[in-house]
Amino acid sequence: MGSTVAAKMQSRIGSRSIPALRLDRTRLHAMGNEDGLDTAICWQAISSRDPRFDGRFFSGATSTGLYCRNVCPVPPARLENILLFACAAAAESAGFRPCKRCQPQAAPGTPAWLGTSAVVSRAVRLILEGALNDGGVDELAERLGLGSRQLRRLFVQHLGTSPLKIATTHRVHLARKLIEESALPMTQIAFGSGFKSIREFNHAIHLSAGQSPSELRGAAGGSRRKARAGGLELRLPYRRPFDWASLIAFLKPRAIPGVEVVKESSYQRTIEVGGVPGILTVRPDGVRSRLVVHLQVASYEGLAQTVERVRRIFDLNADPIQIASHLSSDSRLRGLIKLRPGLRVPGVWDGFEAAVLAVLGQKLTTIGTRRIVGRFVQMFGAPVDTPIRGLKFLFPRPEILAHADLSKAGISDSCAQIIRRLTCSGIRRHLSFATSRTLEQVVSRLKETCGIDESTANYIAMRAFGEPDAFPFAESRLRRSLAETGPIVSATEAIGIAEPWRPWRAYAAMHFAEKR
Hints:
With 516 residues, this protein is an alpha+beta fold. It has helices at 3-13, 39-48, 88-93, 118-128, 131-134, 137-144, 148-159, 163-181, 186-192, 198-209, 213-220, 244-251, 303-313, 320-327, 331-339, 351-359, 370-380, 398-401, 413-427, 439-450, 454-464, 476-483, 491-498, 505-513; strands spanning 21-22, 58-61, 66-68, 82-85, 97-98, 232-237, 260-263, 266-273, 276-284, 290-297. 45% of the residues lie in helices and 10% in strands. The strands form two sheets. It has a five-stranded mixed β-sheet. The termini are far apart. Residues 1-35 and 222-227 have low confidence and may be disordered.
């Protein structure tokens, strides 16, 4: 970069270093692929406003002090005035503010950390789940099995910013969405987004946007909005393509009687947040690349974690272009990917729930017995009063199941024993359904503490933990699909066939599971 541009940035951000990557002499790394994304490609994506790159990187203009998505309708700054960033937090760390036209805080979830570092990937997932809301970087590093200094170094290396800045930026972006799209009181927005005080909330918003929360709401017309009766509505963006139809086709036959209602145009279920029951409804927008989420809950405390759960159910953080590019190198998958572009790995609202259902027979290629599941929920789930037909119960809590006679619901002794191990492990905190260190650790804990077989543990990992490389290799329909012609392949052969698909074996498994 020229000395004039460097001087501009130095005067803008003081003595802080600039964790950015310059167009003229480097490549932009940490973009979710092992080779990095060439800066020439980034510039082409900015010039053409290619939507495939939306959220994969951000550009900061030293001439304005603003950072943008590549799809910004405003003509880009001159090449010598642009800095590239792997994520929004890195841009804000360098002193840039989000552009008001393209609103980078509303970009699809940045996949910059996917595929670059397993540690960074898991750390970011934990941060999005609220790991730094109640704890510090030292505790986060301990959960990941390394020192806090090393964790900070990895974040700077792969994302150009610190774990705390990632957490703060995530809170600010959610808060801005609530300020501009809802009529919630500022106090509820502050604590629902994960801030510990109103003062911290006000300072962070002003530092990021250059305006107070009230000024932001006034500019967006939020002060004139009326709260939607009985709930809060949010819009969560995703990266195209997005196969809503296949996702619903997977969820519908597996819907939990009394807990979930799945239709072609909507997903609804009962939820419990902080011990308070509520209702979740999700629909596709129909116009833009986003889902419309309607929450009916008595309190919005912990809203950030609730939003992340919804994103996990619909796999909104996925980068379908990157995944398809990797898997299409295999001739077995090429045609399936063309048939169902944007296929996602459906997640779950609650990991414990997914594990119990897997034990009861609900897996990747089998649905299980709905009659037994319905009786199980009716007998042990807490009844709730909802205006939606078919939503009658909360899924049974571990504390209830730990002492329940599961045989009354028609559950076999072997399954009941595993469920009791699941509940006891969860209550004693021997097993947590939060993000874990590695896929191998997830599978190992499920096997050792609960007696779940390895293939079923992989299925639980892909749906409950969001493990993109989980592979339920033993399922017969999956092995039959892998065979194409000829006899069904063995479980060992299936593992060998899937080896080139790493680290996206879960997506490959979904394609074969949906194969007709």
